[in-house]
Design goal:
By secondary structure, the protein is an alpha+beta fold. It has twelve helices and 15 strands. 41% of the residues lie in helices and 22% in strands. Helix 11 (402-413) runs antiparallel to helix 12.
Length: 450
C-alpha cells in the first residue's frame, strides 16, 4: 500500500509539472516573448516533467525541408548519429559536441528523431543504440541513453520533435511517456497557434505596406489625361496585384509639346513598383526640354542600367506630341508595338519602331538601335499604346487574348473616341478571362488626333 501511494504521488507530481510548464509557456506566448525564449522554456520544462538529464527541440524548416535544433539543454545526451571525427575531437575538446548538435539538421525519416517526425508517433526508447533507426556507432557519449520522443503537431501538420533523455540503464516508465506525450501535444498546439498568429501579423503588416505602396503609386499616376488643342487622350492602369509594374505618364515638354509614356517592368510586386517609380522620375527629369524620344530613352537607360538587376528590364514607349496636333514622334525601347487606327481606311496599322529594352545594355547598343520614328496622323486617327498584360491575358483554356482581338475591338471603338477605346478593351479583357485571376498588369494609353 505504501509503494502504491508513493507511485500515485509521483504520477500526481508529474501531472502538476506538466500543468506548470504549460502555464509558463502560455504566459511567454501571451507576453510576446521571442521564439528563442519559448523554445528554451519548452525544453527545460520537458526535462523537468520526466526528471531527465536534458531535452532537445527540433522544428521543421519548411523551406529547407529539414528538422533544425532550436534548443538543447546543456546536459542532454546526443540523440543523433555522431560522425567518428566528432567523437574523436569531443574526447579532447568539450565544445565540439555541443557545437555539432546545435548546427546539425536532420531530414524527415533520418535516424530516430527523423523517424518519430515522419511517423508522427511518440516513442519510449530504452536504449538508443539498439533502436532499429539509430545509425551511429558505439562511442563513449551514447553508451546507455534512454529517451522519450514525441512529435509536435498542429492539427495534422507536423511541426517538429520534442525529446528528453538521460544516460541510464533504467527505461522511462509508461506513465512518464504518457505525461511527456501530453506535454508535447499541448506544446505543439501552442507553437502552432503562435506561428499562425505571427504569420497573420506579418501578413497584415505586409498588406498594410502594400496598400501604402499602392496608394503612393496611385498618386504618381496622372489624375486624368490632359487635353490639348490638337489631341484627345485617355488612359487606364489595372494592376494584377496591389502594386503594379506598369505605369503611364503625361509629361510637359517645353511650352509647346507633351510627352506620353507607357512602361512595363519585367516583374511584379514591390521590386517592380520601385523600378517603375525610378523610371518615371528619370524620364521626367530628362524630358523637360527634349523633343527627341530616343534621346530621352537613352538617358533613362544610362541612368537606370547600373541599378537594375540582371534578371530585370523595362520596356518603354515614349512619344512627343506637338500640342497643336502638327506632329507625333515615337521612341520604343523594346515595348509592345503601338497600333494606329486610320479613320480614312478603317484599318489598323502596327508601328514597328526599332529599340532595345531599358536595362539590357549599358548604352552603346541601345543608342545605336533605338531611333525616333515620326508617325503621320490625320484628323480622327487614333494611336493605341498598351502593355503585354492586354494581349497576353489568358482564359480558362490558357488561350491568349492576342493582338488580333485587340485590333478588332480597337477598330470598332476608335470612331467613338479615346475613352471609348480604353473602356472597350478593358471590358473585353475582363470578359475574356472570366473568373481567372488577372496574370499581369494592364495599362492602356490612347491618343486621338482632333
Amino acid at each position: 500500500m505504501k509503494l502504491f501511494k508513493e507511485g500515485d504521488a509521483r504520477r500526481a507530481s508529474r501531472r502538476k509539472r506538466v500543468f506548470d510548464v504549460l502555464q509558463v509557456v502560455g504566459d511567454a506566448i501571451q507576453g510576446g516573448q521571442p521564439e528563442s525564449t519559448l523554445h528554451r522554456l519548452i525544453t527545460q520544462g520537458a526535462a523537468s516533467v520526466v526528471e531527465a538529464e536534458g531535452a532537445v527541440l527540433y522544428l521543421l524548416d519548411e523551406k529547407a525541408g529539414v528538422l533544425v535544433p532550436r534548443h538543447c539543454t546543456r546536459d542532454c545526451p546526443p540523440l543523433i548519429a555522431l560522425p567518428e571525427r566528432i567523437v574523436n575531437q569531443a574526447k579532447t575538446n568539450a565544445g565540439t559536441l555541443p557545437s555539432f548538435l546545435r548546427l546539425h539538421s536532420i531530414k524527415p525519416g533520418e535516424g530516430v528523431v527523423g523517424s518519430v517526425f515522419s511517423n508522427l508517433k511518440e516513442e519510449n526508447i530504452p536504449d538508443l543504440r539498439h533502436h532499429p533507426k539509430f545509425e551511429g556507432k558505439a562511442n563513449p557519449f551514447q553508451q546507455h541513453v534512454a529517451a522519450l520522443m514525441a512529435p509536435l503537431k498542429h492539427g495534422v501538420r507536423g511541426l517538429g520533435v520534442l525529446a528528453a533523455a538521460s544516460e541510464r540503464t533504467k527505461p522511462f516508465s509508461p506513465h512518464e511517456l504518457e505525461m511527456f506525450d501530453a506535454l508535447a501535444e499541448q506544446c505543439g498546439f501552442a507553437l502552432g497557434n503562435a506561428q499562425a498568429h505571427q504569420e497573420a501579423g506579418a501578413k497584415r503588416k505586409l498588406e498594410s505596406e502594400l496598400r501604402n505602396a499602392s496608394e503612393i503609386q496611385r498618386i504618381l499616376l496622372p489624375e486624368k489625361a490632359p487635353e490639348t488643342a490638337g489631341w484627345e487622350m485617355a488612359a487606364r492602369n489595372v494592376p494584377a496585384r496591389l502594386v503594379s509594374g506598369d505605369y503611364y505618364d503625361f509629361v510637359p515638354v517645353g511650352s509647346t509639346h507633351l510627352g506620353v509614356a507607357i512602361a512595363d517592368v519585367c516583374g511584379k510586386g514591390i521590386p517592380a513598383a520601385l523600378i517603375t517609380a525610378m523610371c518615371r522620375s528619370v524620364l521626367r527629369s530628362n524630358a523637360r526640354e527634349t523633343l527627341s524620344p530616343a534621346t530621352v530613352l537613352a538617358a533613362v537607360n544610362r541612368n537606370l542600367f547600373p541599378d537594375i538587376r540582371e534578371d530585370m528590364f523595362i520596356t518603354v514607349s515614349y512619344a512627343v506630341l506637338a500640342e497643336d496636333g502638327s506632329s507625333l514622334t515615337l521612341g520604343r525601347a523594346g515595348h509592345t508595338p503601338p497600333l494606329v487606327w486610320r479613320q480614312e481606311s478603317g484599318k489598323v496599322d502596327v508601328i514597328s519602331a526599332p529599340g532595345v529594352a531599358v536595362g539590357v545594355d549599358k548604352g552603346s547598343v541601345f543608342e545605336r538601335i533605338t531611333k525616333d520614328v515620326p508617325i503621320p496622323m490625320e484628323s480622327g486617327d487614333v494611336l493605341l499604346l498598351y502593355t503585354d498584360g492586354v494581349n497576353e491575358a489568358v482564359d480558362h483554356k490558357e488561350l491568349e487574348f492576342g493582338e488580333e482581338r485587340i485590333k478588332t475591338i480597337f477598330a470598332l471603338a476608335a470612331p467613338n473616341g479615346a475613352q471609348a477605346v480604353v473602356d472597350a478593351l478593358c471590358d473585353a479583357v475582363r470578359k475574356f478571362i472570366g473568373g481567372e485571376p488577372q496574370s499581369d498588369d494592364i495599362t492602356l494609353v490612347v491618343v486621338r488626333k482632333k
